[in-house]
User: Which sequence fits this backbone?
């Protein structure tokens, strides 16, 4: 029983780490600013989410002390990630950063 | 009472604060509960002025169903974005979409843009000054019209029914 839980935790950690890695890779690889904003809001939220679920299971079941801090972290992460992405996008548009085709977006609020 | 006639200007907010407090302290001893209760009663009253008009959940059942769809979409979106990132970047066709919105309450527009940013390969970039058009950046699309319709049908429609 314990070893089954350990497998589940290991799987969750691996999933989380893979998504975090893809998120960081996207930051390096994608060609323009607007595209780069996408990856930290997506890949990393699920990546961190899986890691935190793994942490909850580990401390609650294997260590016997219920750990619920992680739920708060997930909630705050999912509330703040879209806002910071939105502010970055807005700043990018305001500064007139060129997109991948070298065009400058002129559409502002 | 500061800023309001009612003792509990925002019961929902108070409940959320109390739960957050208990989760953060991970304990149920009377001292924690007492301080938490005082904070969750006072904070909503003090911050009453800063809030736009309250958002009421009109259809709780639909909200639950929407959250389910949303969690599913987050997972799918993550896989899609991961796939797109790993593939060749030159094949990506990013675009700015101008999504006309019918939501009126500022809070529900905020909810919509948060959902758009977390879900399917899109990030909400800008809201026009008249709150009628949301500029959305999409990482990869072949058909802009269909992407706009999808956002409107999948997210804006349910949000409108739930909150307005």
Assistant:
């Amino acid at each position: 029983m314990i070893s089954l839980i350990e497998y589940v935790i290991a799987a969750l950690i691996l999933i989380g780490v893979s998504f975090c890695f893809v998120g960081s890779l996207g930051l390096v690889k994608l060609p323009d600013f607007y595209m780069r904003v996408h990856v930290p809001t997506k890949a990393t939220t699920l990546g961190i989410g899986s890691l935190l679920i793994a942490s909850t299971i580990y401390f609650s079941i294997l260590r016997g002390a219920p750990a619920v801090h992680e739920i708060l972290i997930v909630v705050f992460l999912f509330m703040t990630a879209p806002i910071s992405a939105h502010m970055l996008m807005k700043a990018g548009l305001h500064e007139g950063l060129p997109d991948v085709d070298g065009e400058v977006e002129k559409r502002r609020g | 009472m500061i800023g309001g006639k009612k003792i509990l200007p925002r019961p929902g907010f108070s409940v959320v604060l109390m739960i957050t407090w208990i989760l953060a302290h991970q304990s149920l001893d009377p001292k924690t509960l007492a301080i938490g209760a005082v904070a969750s009663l006072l904070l909503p009253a003090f911050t009453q002025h800063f809030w736009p008009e309250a958002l009421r959940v009109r259809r709780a059942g639909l909200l639950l169903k929407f959250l389910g769809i949303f969690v599913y979409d987050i997972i799918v979106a993550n896989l899609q974005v991961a796939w797109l990132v790993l593939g060749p970047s030159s094949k990506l066709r990013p675009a700015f979409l101008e999504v006309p919105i019918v939501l009126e309450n500022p809070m529900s527009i905020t909810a919509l843009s948060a959902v758009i940013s977390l879900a399917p390969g899109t990030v909400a970039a800008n809201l026009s000054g008249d709150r009628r058009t949301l500029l959305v950046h999409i990482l990869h699309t072949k058909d802009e019209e269909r992407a706009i319709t999808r956002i409107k049908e999948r997210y804006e429609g349910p949000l409108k029914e739930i909150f307005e």
